Amino acid sequence: MLYFSWMKWFKALNNNQIPRPDTIRTIEVAGKQLCLINNDDKITATQSSCPHAGGHFGGGWCKNGNLVCPIHRYEYSLTTGRGAEGQGDYINIYPTELREDGLYIGFEESWWNKLWG
Length: 117
Known about the structure:
By secondary structure, the protein is mainly β.
């Protein structure tokens, strides 16, 4: 079965609202609660809660390119979303794009939803 999808981009923040370096901020975009992480001057958007025990990443921190959950200290790669070895889980990472008027976040939209949604 063929599955086609493309990105639908939503403006998340104006330029003056972008999180300062080494901070995490929770926002809502297109009905989804997300965490924005500014780590090493790179903005990453992730799901807002840990898949392990539901801990909120807004209270977490970054370590060696990983997002750390504040509850059980589970770690997730800010690049791939994969949990540390042995965790067997992952988080959703959403593409971000800095544009002239602010930060945009992309969500995959299937061809089927586009046609019939």
